[in-house]
Amino acid sequence: MDKEDSIRLIQLYGSFKMLWDSKDPDHLNKSKREDSWRKISKKMKLPIPELKKKLDSLTEELAEKIIQAANELREDKAMIQRSTQHVALRATACLQRQGGHFEQFL
């Protein structure tokens, strides 16, 4: 599956909220979930097990990249300090404006 197909799979999967959102009322409805996978399979012209395997692979790849980025950020002490100061500045501005719009004052 090439990059374009992977993007298409992610978009299709995302359009069926019951597949990924545990708060969706149909999330536990097995027949609706299976029907959603059949629709994705038909549009992608690939078998469901292959699509699920690819989605699992993409999920693992994303998790690895997030962990790697988090580890790199932990090592950048100056960036952490700047971010902390920026959050404090924004929180103070928000409090001064009593929760109102404050972006123009930063």
From TrEMBL:
**Does the keyword field hold Repressor?**
no
Q: Ranges for the MADF domain?
A: 8-94
Chain coiled-coil ranges: 48-75
One Pfam family name is MADF_DNA_bdg
Record keywords, A-Z: Coiled coil
Q: Which residues cross the membrane?
A: none
**What is the protein's name according to its record?**
MADF domain-containing protein
> InterPro entries annotated for this entry?
MADF-dom
Q: Which PROSITE patterns match?
A: MADF
Origin superkingdom: Eukaryota
